[in-house]
């Protein structure tokens, strides 16, 4: 079930990225090559990137690619380091629940506002925040036991740093 969840999350992110890149590229070619462009392309690609960022953030969390400062847990004896890692999981959980709640409230608040070109509800765009937070909470729940039990290896830290984050 976890593999299917990861596959679907990665697939949706890949489709959003490919569609956004294709749309922007096609619009640039049309604009500079033929003097025409799609009026809606910039708006749609922006919204796809917003959704991509929030849907992909759980995958980044799982890989350890978000910024992290691991100096304190690395300097502590293992029992104390486990407690620090558990505290980190609890704080991240609280933050995601709070952000998801506020994101939901804001999406509902903005539901009556519409985008300039396509007239889409702004709430549909802002729904990326609570949906992304729920996905991050699922990823966190799946990876937290291993994270709390054992510190990441130096090789895992290097891979995460190459992906974008750990100090």
Keywords:
7 helices, transport, mainly alpha, single chain, cell membrane, 78% helix
Summarize the structure.
With about 170 residues, the protein is mainly α. It is built from seven helices and no strands.
Describe this structure in words.
It is a multi-pass membrane protein. This is TRAP transporter small permease protein. Belongs to the TRAP transporter small permease family. With 167 residues, this protein is mainly alpha-helical. The chain has one domain (2-163). The protein has helices at residues 2-34, 41-63, 71-75, 78-109, 122-126, 128-149, 154-163. It is elongated.
Write the SSE topology.
Layout lengths: L1 H33 L6 H23 L7 H5 L2 H32 L12 H5 L1 H22 L4 H10 L4
Helix pairs in contact: 1-2, 2-6, 4-6
């Amino acid at each position: 079930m976890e593999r299917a969840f990861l596959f679907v999350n990665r697939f949706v992110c890949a489709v959003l990225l490919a569609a956004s890149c294709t749309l922007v590229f096609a619009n640039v070619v049309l604009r500079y090559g033929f003097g025409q462009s799609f009026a809606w392309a910039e708006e749609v690609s922006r919204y796809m990137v917003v959704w991509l960022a929030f849907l992909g953030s759980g995958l980044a969390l799982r890989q350890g690619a978000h910024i992290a400062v691991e100096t304190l847990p690395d300097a502590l004896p293992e029992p104390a380091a486990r407690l620090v890692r558990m505290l980190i999981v609890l704080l991240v959980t609280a933050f995601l629940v709070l952000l998801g709640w506020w994101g939901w409230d804001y999406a509902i608040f903005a539901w009556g506002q519409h985008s300039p070109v396509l007239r889409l509800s702004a709430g549909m765009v802002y729904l990326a925040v609570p949906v992304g937070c729920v996905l991050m909470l699922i990823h966190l729940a799946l990876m937290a036991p291993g994270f709390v039990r054992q510190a990441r290896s130096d090789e895992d830290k290097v891979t995460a740093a190459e992906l974008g984050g750990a100090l």
